[in-house]
Specification:
Blueprint: H1 3-15, E1 24-25, H2 28-31, H3 36-39, E2 42-48, E3 51-57, H4 64-78, E4 82-85, H5 91-100, E5 104-106, E6 110-113, E7 118-121, H6 137-148, E8 155-156, H7 157-163, H8 168-180, E9 184-189, E10 192-197, H9 201-208, E11 216-223, E12 234-236, H10 238-245, E13 255-259, H11 260-268, E14 279-285, H12 300-307, H13 313-325
Parallel strand pairs: 3-4, 4-5, 13-14
Antiparallel strand pairs: 1-2, 2-3, 5-6, 6-7, 8-10, 9-10, 11-14, 12-13
Helix pairs in contact: 1-11, 6-8, 7-8, 10-12, 10-13, 12-13
InterPro entries: WH-like_DNA-bd_sf (IPR036388), WH_DNA-bd_sf (IPR036390)
Protein name: ArsR family transcriptional regulator
Organism: Dyella solisilvae
Length: about 325
């Protein structure tokens, strides 16, 4: 697959967690009967909410009207909704595509697919705010980084975001959220605009807890020998991680956390399933579980949020024990 196809898959799985399959090159039997001018397109398919969708990787030459006719013809031949995938768009180009009724996707930016009932915009709309109930995954990850690592000095938001694998634009949206929640503020140091916590870490954490989302999007069960525990991006999670950090007994079943886009990459290289292999729990997270880069477990704050609804009294006592050790 091309880098753009990989980015498309990661973006779809991020904005539609649990509803999107893997992006794959269009099956040969579908492409074989296409007219030559359509068969030369970069075609992929993906399952979205149990519906098959065709993806056309652009750009390709031609006027907007020609693009619309070509995509309409392709949709008719394949009998599938077609989405035009582009690396980037100027604002006026986006408006032209929408006005022309062309369904399109820009990874990390926007999905416009009326046939699927979707018009999901990121760069072109204000980010989710704390008033909507929860922090976005990127805002939560940046806040946790500040609480655990960056609380002693101001930081440029884009630098923090880069450490976590986010873009500068994502950092801008996250900062707006965190400022609206009165958890951080911006100050100018020389020519640099920096962010820092308004209060000390512990009171900030107490105020932020009601806004924190469970990072776990879904759980999968995978044979132990099918994936390498030492891969970059995988961390010990769940009760396993809590047992590592507290006096809680180690569970029999191991749990691991991995960010959704990273998991998609890992799956491509996994061997076939072995029915005799021991199953382990894979938690698919909305943001990277690698906020603390040199740890084997997920960070303690994400761990607490992921387990706070566990009804086991022993687990809740262990969480209290863990919280007391923070910021000593």
């Amino acid at each position: 697959m091309t880098p753009l196809a990989h980015e498309t898959e990661a973006y779809l799985q991020t904005i539609l967690p649990g509803l999107v399959g893997m992006v794959r090159p269009a099956p040969t039997e579908r492409v074989a009967n296409l007219p030559y001018y359509l068969g030369q397109l970069k075609l992929y398919t993906v399952q979205v909410a149990e519906r098959e969708v065709a993806l056309v990787l652009g750009p390709f030459d031609g006027k907007r009207g020609d693009t619309k006719k070509m995509l309409a013809s392709l949709s008719k031949y394949l009998n599938l909704p077609v989405i035009y995938v582009l690396k980037g768009l100027q604002s006026f180009e986006r408006k032209q595509l929408i006005a022309s009724g062309i369904q399109f996707l820009v990874p990390g930016n926007q999905l416009f697919a009326p046939s699927l009932g979707m018009d999901l915009r990121e760069y072109f709309r204000p980010g989710a705010t704390a008033t909507e109930g929860q922090l976005s995954p990127s805002a939560q990850a940046i806040l946790i980084w500040l609480l655990l690592i960056g609380y002693e000095e101001p930081w440029v938001a884009a630098e923090v975001a880069a450490r976590l694998g986010y873009t500068a634009m994502t950092a801008t949206r996250a900062v707006r959220e965190l400022e609206a929640a009165e958890l951080i503020e911006q100050t100018r140091l020389g020519r640099r605009k920096c962010i820092h916590l308004i209060d000390a870490p512990r009171p900030t954490w107490e105020r932020a807890k009601p806004l924190m989302r469970n990072p776990e999007l879904r759980v999968e069960f995978v044979g132990r020998r099918r994936f390498a525990h030492g891969q970059h991006g995988i961390r010990v999670a769940g009760l396993d991680a809590l047992a590592t950090r507290t006096m809680l007994a180690t569970p029999n079943t191991h749990a691991w956390a991995v960010e959704q886009a990273e998991w998609a990459k890992i799956q491509r290289g996994m061997p076939a399933a072995d029915p005799w292999d021991t199953a382990e729990v894979i938690q698919i997270w909305a943001y990277p579980p690698t906020i603390l880069p040199d740890q084997t477990t997920v960070d303690p704050l994400s761990l607490i949020v992921s387990l706070r609804d566990n009804d086991d009294e022993r687990v809740q006592l262990a969480i209290e024990e863990l919280e007391k050790t923070l910021w000593q």
